[in-house]
C-alpha cells in the first residue's frame, strides 16, 4: 500500500463499510443515514421537556468531534508525507468544524439555571469530562496529560492509539526537520506519548520560516492555519466555560468535577507553543 493512501483515493481510517452484497439502488435516505438509530437515541430520563435539548446538543457535538478526528487524522497523514497543500485544505475544513462547535454553545446557552436543575439529577454520574472523543482530539493536538484520564484509557484502543502516535504538531515539527531547518534530533526523537513542550530549536526554525516567507511559503501558510485553529480551540473552551457559569455558576459539576473552576484551568494549555512565542521575537 502507498505510504500516502489518501492521495490515491484510499483511506487509512477505520470505518464500517457496507458489505459487498448491499443493493445501493434500493437504499432510501433514512437507510443511508441510519436515521432509525440516530433519531431513536434520544431517551430523556426526567420529566423536563428541556432535557431533549441537553441530549441532542451533546450527541451532535460527539458526531462533529468524530468528523474532526477524521479530518485531523487526514491532516497528520498528509504532513507525514510532506503533502502540505493537501494538509492545509483539510485544516480549513477542521477549522470550520470547530467554528460550528463554538456556535453550538449558543443553543445550549438558552437553558436557564432553573430548567437545568429540573433534569440534573437524571444525569447521574454522567459528565462531558468523560468524553473519550474529546480526549482523542486533545491527544491528536499534543495535550497528552495522563492525569486527566481517570480510567478512560482502559479498553479504549482508539484513545490508546492516539496516545502513542505522533500528534499533528509532532508531524509538523518532523516536516521542519525534513526541510533542513535546525530542529534538534533530540526533539525529533522525543517520546510521542508526552505532552508538547516548548523547544528552542523548533522556535528558531519557525523564526527562519517567518523571516523568509517566500522561501518557506507552504510551511508559513500551514503555521498560520495552525494558529487560527488553536485560536478557535481556545474559543471553544471559553464558550464552554461561559455556558457552564451561566447555567450552574460555581457549583460542583456533574460526576463531582469542580465545574467552571476546572474548565478555567484548561485555558492555560498552549498546543503549539513556538508559534505563539515567536511573535514576540519577530
UniProtKB/TrEMBL annotation:
Keywords for this protein: Dioxygenase, Heme, Iron, Metal-binding, Oxidoreductase, Tryptophan catabolism
Q: What class of enzyme is it?
A: oxidoreductase
| One Pfam family of this chain | Trp_dioxygenase
- Where does this protein act, in terms of pathway? Amino-acid degradation; L-tryptophan degradation via kynurenine pathway; L-kynurenine from L-tryptophan: step 1/2
Q: How is the cofactor bound?
A: Binds 1 heme group per subunit.
The transmembrane residues are: none
Question: What cofactor does this chain's UniProt record say it requires?
Answer: heme
Output the InterPro entries linked to this UniProt entry: Trp/Indoleamine_2_3_dOase-like (IPR037217), Trp_2_3_dOase (IPR004981)
Residue numbers binding substrate: 54-58, 120, 254
Instruction: Give the enzyme's EC designation.
Output: 1.13.11.11
**Gene3D superfamilies given for it?**
1.20.58.480
- The entry marks the following residues as binding heme, namely 240
Catalytic activity reads: L-tryptophan + O2 = N-formyl-L-kynurenine
Q: How does it assemble?
A: Homotetramer.
Family, according to the entry, reads as follows: Belongs to the tryptophan 2,3-dioxygenase family.
What this protein is reported to do is described as: Heme-dependent dioxygenase that catalyzes the oxidative cleavage of the L-tryptophan (L-Trp) pyrrole ring and converts L-tryptophan to N-formyl-L-kynurenine. Catalyzes the oxidative cleavage of the indole moiety.
Provide the protein name.
Tryptophan 2,3-dioxygenase
Which species is listed as the source? Answer: Marinomonas ostreistagni
Encoded by which gene?
A: kynA
Amino acid at each position: 500500500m502507498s505510504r500516502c493512501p489518501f492521495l490515491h483515493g484510499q483511506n487509512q481510517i477505520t470505518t464500517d463499510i457496507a458489505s459487498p452484497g448491499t443493493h445501493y439502488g434500493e437504499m432510501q435516505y433514512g437507510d443511508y443515514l441510519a436515521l432509525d438509530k440516530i433519531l431513536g437515541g434520544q431517551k430523556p430520563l426526567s420529566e423536563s421537556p428541556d432535557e431533549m435539548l441537553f441530549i441532542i446538543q451533546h450527541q451532535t457535538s460527539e458526531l462533529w468531534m468524530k468528523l474532526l478526528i477524521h479530518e485531523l487524522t487526514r491532516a497528520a497523514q498528509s504532513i507525514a508525507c510532506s503533502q502540505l497543500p493537501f494538509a492545509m485544505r483539510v485544516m480549513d475544513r477542521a477549522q470550520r468544524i470547530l467554528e460550528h462547535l463554538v456556535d453550538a454553545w449558543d443553543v445550549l446557552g438558552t437553558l436557564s439555571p432553573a430548567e437545568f436543575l429540573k433534569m440534573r439529577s437524571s444525569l447521574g454520574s454522567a459528565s462531558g469530562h468523560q468524553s473519550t472523543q474529546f480526549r482523542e482530539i486533545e491527544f491528536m493536538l499534543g495535550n497528552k496529560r495522563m492525569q486527566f484520564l481517570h480510567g478512560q484509557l482502559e479498553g479504549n484502543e482508539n484513545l490508546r492509539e492516539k496516545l502513542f502516535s505522533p500528534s499533528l504538531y509532532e508531524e509538523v515539527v518532523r516536516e521542519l526537520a525534513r526541510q533542513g531547518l535546525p530542529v534538534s534530533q533530540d526533539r525529533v526523537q522525543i517520546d510521542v506519548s508526552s505532552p508538547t513542550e516548548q523547544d528552542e530549536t523548533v522556535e528558531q526554525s519557525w523564526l527562519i520560516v517567518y523571516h523568509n516567507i517566500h522561501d518557506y511559503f507552504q510551511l508559513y501558510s500551514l503555521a498560520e492555519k495552525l494558529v487560527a485553529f488553536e485560536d478557535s480551540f481556545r474559543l471553544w473552551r471559553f464558550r464552554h466555560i461561559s455556558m457552564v457559569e451561566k447555567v450552574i455558576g460555581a457549583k460542583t459539576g456533574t460526576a463531582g468535577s469542580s465545574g467552571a473552576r476546572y474548565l478555567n484551568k484548561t485555558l492555560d494549555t498552549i498546543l503549539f507553543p513556538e508559534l505563539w512565542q515567536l511573535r514576540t521575537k519577530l
